[in-house]
Amino acid sequence: xxxxxxxxxxxxxxxxxxxxxxxxxxxxxxxxxxxxxxxxxxxxxxxxxxxxxxxxxxxxxxxxxxxxxxxxxxxxxxxxxxxxxxxxxxxxxxxxxxxxxxxxxxxxxxxxxxx
Length: 115
Description:
The protein has helices at 30-35, 95-100, and strands spanning 2-14, 17-19, 25-29, 43-48, 54-62, 69-72, 84-94, 104-106. It is mainly beta.
């Protein structure tokens, strides 16, 4: 049996940009991507702490060291600059493997920088 389990989480980062007229996605600072074990085009769930919105999209690389978290396309309507979000990715795995799996969780600071 395969189940979905949390693979990675970026806990509480600030939206730095929202670009409505852009092909949909979320741009994430490449340093944060690396630390959270995320890759470009990976599907993620974005949970907005400020307004309760939840959405699914895919990751594109942002400038390394910039702290950039930008919602693009229609997703830009789901958050305002300054909102706090949690970004989560999931992986499918065997039930027994999932019991032993340890997800990667990072806690950036208030400037979206690694601590």
